[in-house]
Write a structure and sequence with these properties.
By secondary structure, the protein is of the alpha+beta class. Helix content is 19%, strand content 25%. Helix 1 runs antiparallel to helix 2.
């Protein structure tokens, strides 16, 4: 199952629960979770640990990217991208 969360105002993190993989991609390149591939992802993190999965669940929803005051969760972002 694919789940999408907002990483920054322009980046989206898509988590695949089947393969335990996280895809980081530009929101303009991929607008639906079904169109995420390894070719169009900017960063791929395989075999996420428990801390990275918890940090992903703490990220904001993708609809919040269009808000004027988008708040970046720096702790979650650094935990996820640390590999």
């Amino acid at each position: 199952m694919l789940k999408q969360k907002a990483l920054t105002k322009n980046l989206v993190a898509t988590y695949c629960t089947t393969t335990n993989t996280l895809f980081v991609h530009n929101k303009k390149t991929v607008n639906k979770a079904a169109f995420v591939y390894t070719q169009n992802a900017q960063k791929i993190i395989r075999n996420l640990n428990a801390a990275q999965q918890n940090a992903f669940s703490n990220l904001a929803a993708t609809y919040m990217q269009s808000a004027k005051q988008f708040v970046i969760n720096k702790l979650a972002q650094s935990t996820i991208l640390k590999s």
